[in-house]
Amino acid sequence: MTRVLGIDPGSRITGYGIIESDGMHSCHLGSGCIRTLSGAFPDRLGEIFQGIREVLLDWQPQEVAIEQVFVSRNASSALKLGHARGAAISAVVTLDLPVFEYTPAAVKQGLVGSGRAQKEQVQHMVRVILGMQGRLALDASDALAVAVCHAHSHATRRQIEGAS
Fold it and tell me: What's the pTM value of the predicted model, to 2 decimals?
């Protein structure tokens, strides 16, 4: 079983989810959100860095999957998201862990079967795949979706490489 940390970066809320998976079956270990205070933007980036670092030290994942920047109409928002993503990735690489990146469409396609699925559809599939009950924050479910997408697609890539 491989322990995977999935990250859904955001400048105000960064979701994280930890699973263990053999590539076919995955189980939920933990998830949550790093909520930054309303201080200066550089301080919020520091909070994201520290929060991800604490998650890494607490859960000891072997691999990390993160959602790529979604390019929106608002350039300022896209830049802030990119900075938040950079803070999270920086925390990961300081611990020499591999980082795998997935587009939002690839994550949705992998879990729901449609790259245009709604957040609620993704959340529902995360619950089904991981056998979860109860309330789950959208940012945490997005992070778990990234982790599940990685675990399943990475296992498939390893099988294909082993067959050739």
Answer: 0.92
